[in-house]
Amino acid sequence: MAMKDLLSHIKTSTALDTAAISSDTTTNGNAIHMKGFESAVISFHSGAYTDGTYTPLILEGDTNVVGAATAVADDDLLPTGTGQEAAQAISAANTTKQIGYRGRKEWIFASVVSTGTSSGATIGATAIQGSASKIPTS
Known about the structure:
CATH topology: Jelly Rolls
Helix content: under 10%
């Protein structure tokens, strides 16, 4: 069986710096430049968890300014049809949740909305960009 090379076809970046979140807030991540890529997956992960619910979102925009970004339409997300919040909330330790992106904006951002939080949890996210127009990606 032939083995295929995935490494040359993707790019990974820190989408949300791993940190403790201990209040009800919106925590926005880093700007991910989609130039040269047609798709992405944001993989959200939790570490230590005490309480709260952490709802991962993907924002998109035409600039690298998160304040100008908007929530991605459900049709540009995978899985589609249920809204990115529906089945993706993190409410336990050592959990991962993925949201796929296939929109057309130049920049995307990971975001987490925390509710019911007093002690909190440690949350982070990684962007995996794929469908590269130029291979290898590095």
